[in-house]
Amino acid sequence: MPGIDACLEEAMSLPGARGAAIVDWTSGLALGTAGQSPNGDHEATAAETAELARAAAEYTAFAPEPPDRSALPGAPGRTAGDRSGGPGGGTQGADAGTRAGASDDGEGQGGKGPPVQDLIVTTRTGYHILSFVETTFDSSVFLHLWMDRDTGNLALARLRLGRLAERLVLG
Q: Are 19 and 46 in contact (CB under 8 A)?
């Protein structure tokens, strides 16, 4: 399980990597940086990417509430005349307060961590991948990788960054 420095070093070893950072999206502070920054200032980049991460994690347009599965036609326990969970209905499912990506079956995020797995921003010259880190405590951390568009492999980077986020040990 890598710490911050080892994680950034591994991220920078990806083809096309230009810069990497671990950022707290609540405060906008960089917990660690490596390589270059798109605007020449790692702290400014951390603050700007934190705004994007915060929007994706908090706005329901990006991470909507999961649907109440019991309200779907043919769902167990629902009869043909029962319309209470449908549009305009007065009841909400037991998981109405949980965010997207959460599940009550013990798999996935189980309501912990951010509702978004990762974000990809494509520019004319590069890619920015923000991969959210799920931890046992209330985490608001993500990995940011900036890659050159001509030499980087977006699919490989996304997979590797996701694995890094899973293994990252903060502290």
A: no
This prediction has a pTM of: 0.71
Q: Read off the DSSP letter of residue 126.
A: E
Is the Cβ–Cβ distance between 66 and 52 less than 8 Å? Answer: no
143 close to 164: Cβ distance less than 8 angstroms: yes
**Residue 33, SS3?**
strand
Residue 165 has pLDDT above 70, yes or no: yes
* pLDDT the model gives residue 43: 95
Report how far residue 20's alpha carbon sits from residue 6's, in angstroms, rounded to the nearest whole number.
12
Residue 129 has pLDDT above 60, yes or no: yes
Angle, in degrees to the nearest 10, between helices 154-167 and 4-12: 170
